[in-house]
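Inputs:
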Amino acid sequence: MSHGGPAVSAATRDLALRQRATRVVPGGMYGHQNAASLPADFPQFLERGRGSRIWDVDGREYVDFMCSFGPIVLGHAHPRVEAAVQAQSRLADCQNGPSPRMVELAERLVALIPHADWAMFAKNGTDATTLALSIARAATGRAKVLVAAGAYHGSAPWCTPRPAGTTPEDRAHLVPFVYNDLASAEAAADRAGRDLAAVLVSPFRHDARHDQALVDPAFARGLRGLCDRTGAALILDDVRAGFRLDLAGSWEPVGVRPDLSAFSKAIANGYPLAAVVGRDALRDAAARVFATGSFWFAAVPMAAALATLDGLQAERGIEAMVRAGTLLREGLARQARAHGLRITQSGPVQLPFLSFAGDRPAGADARPGQSASAPGLRFERANLFTGEAARRGVWLHPWHNWFLSAAHTQDDVRLALERTDEAFAAVRRAFGPDA
Amino acid sequence: MSHGGPAVSAATRDLALRQRATRVVPGGMYGHQNAASLPADFPQFLERGRGSRIWDVDGREYVDFMCSFGPIVLGHAHPRVEAAVQAQSRLADCQNGPSPRMVELAERLVALIPHADWAMFAKNGTDATTLALSIARAATGRAKVLVAAGAYHGSAPWCTPRPAGTTPEDRAHLVPFVYNDLASAEAAADRAGRDLAAVLVSPFRHDARHDQALVDPAFARGLRGLCDRTGAALILDDVRAGFRLDLAGSWEPVGVRPDLSAFSKAIANGYPLAAVVGRDALRDAAARVFATGSFWFAAVPMAAALATLDGLQAERGIEAMVRAGTLLREGLARQARAHGLRITQSGPVQLPFLSFAGDRPAGADARPGQSASAPGLRFERANLFTGEAARRGVWLHPWHNWFLSAAHTQDDVRLALERTDEAFAAVRRAFGPDA
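Outputs:
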């Protein structure tokens, strides 16, 4: 694992692929994995993954702290999951009807998640948040939904952070509130009045380009009370955090149970699957909503999900992520201090985020969908830091939360910290220490 | 392969799974694969698939003429596709960025499809139709879209055939026309006026519960002219038919090239993938739309798609489907005639549909999303026919088009026809011959 060479962007294979992609893919790449929004030291194209490590198309190895933006929760190509996938693949995947795995997985989620009396499956996280909202609307006969300003709930026209290609009607029934500000949610509910169908909320504040914020338990309880009072459904968008904080649902430790939860990402260790689970009171509405997709009932991702849940329990995966995440956080804090750099680390250690005090212009507030290079937003230190880390074989992200997996060992973190120390040194050299 | 026993619905394992599913899945099952909308002789749960054959959870074997509602185009577990999947799986699937397979696949589609200058990928057919519409709106700055009444373009709130859980705003910009009726499309365009962003159309009329209709080439040319005149984008929804009629796009034989095409289903022989391809004029708009999903850039389905396209070309897959589909159509026509039953077979032989004249009450017209048992709609003969066929090991569908694959041999069709002859006999016994 040598990273002393030239920056990745100059490497032959990645650059050649980028040039080819420019001709046949709009913008050369799109979506959350577009390397154009990352420092030049990041590659665009990846080749291989095993456990906590990934390799780009030029053979450079990285300790992976993005985990494919969440899906990889046990580590890349986890033996237990791969074995289950192989076994199911020998039978069938996408058929004229579901396989027994669908019943087994629904039973498993119902057993695991206290507020789940039933489960439905889809492919994308956006499918799950959209379906949950549709179920709430079908159940209540109402239209409005409270959403936290700046929160990400998917890429469909009703929730996309970027307006291109959408119409005003797509967002006609969204009523914004401020995360962790119960009064703002109560005021939003008043604005929605008798047309309030749902409150859609993430288990903690994990808006891109912002420091994260754990949920205030009083806020969570307040939303529960608001929904009980108004008859609206409380929908937890557990797509990003699900199965990393608590296998019973991310608000179970908070003591607040939603009516519906949307899951995806980590549910099947990288295999494409999403799920909505809900309470009995919403079962009939769920059965009335038209919800389907060509690949939604395929067996292999469900077999992978069963094995992923097995693995998370057998390996005490969440404890492993907490252990490694805590080591990483403590190490980064120590290093930043030693270099005289003020940083903020926020969110759960399993889904950490790091920002530099010097990167934040006073009073500037990012809008969702705004690119890292937009005026008023600066990630110079974060870009330099994560770029230097990437050059040295540690995959972080300058403006999106990171993800730990159960495959991260103490040695992985120690190795990563050796390199981040050099990355912090580069930041200090370029920008000087913070006052 | 014996089907002399009791009806499948009484079989132990399927029934036991259905009962378990009733507790943990709303309605016991949902979506297009819900066996509740099928005759009782169909199982709900499937176990295995190979080539043209599938097996249910009670070990019953079927010649499969649904092909998982389209995705299976080369046959179940096709060796070439499975080998490509195995090879890619040994490297990686869902990573922090795409693999080289994404560039290769985009290049392949651009080379294969004359109107494709670029490609984007997603998971669901609905993702692709939604993205295509968003691109058209971003490009034109307009909102309205012409859609054929009764056509299916996906399960998102804007296009779902069932209103439960949707709001009027979801469909605010849809302007209906009648398929193959150019005057109705021109009138719809007049209603949309200067706000017309797109015309969204399937390559032939394949509305569920209706006889199919091939496209009138003059109608297709007329839509092309309408779009050229108004600056709207012509979007071909090739999700269902793509890669079964022509590898260059389903309207290539018609001589009409759309601006955007949406693909999914058959593109990767069952692996979850969707694609939008488009012309250069829409490239910038495509790059501006926020389009992303956790699993959209995964490598395995793209490797499967490359192998599927290889396989379709190497095996002359479309010719094979035409051959088997023609034999099936001719055989069914002969049998129906011999039994004195009037049937209509419609659509391309690769995506056939069969209806019974006796099933259609005069003047009744199905609305999309209406269930087969809704008042005014009767599929008694089709239900009996397909149920008797299912009991005998031939998987058809009473009210949705069927799908051929390149794995269907002359022997498969001959075997299927032996059983459909008995199924027609049962229809004649129950309902008598047609006048």
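Remarks. Chain A has two domains: 8-74+316-431, 79-314. Residues 8-74+316-431 of chain A form a domain with the Aspartate Aminotransferase, domain 1 fold (CATH 3.90.1150.10).
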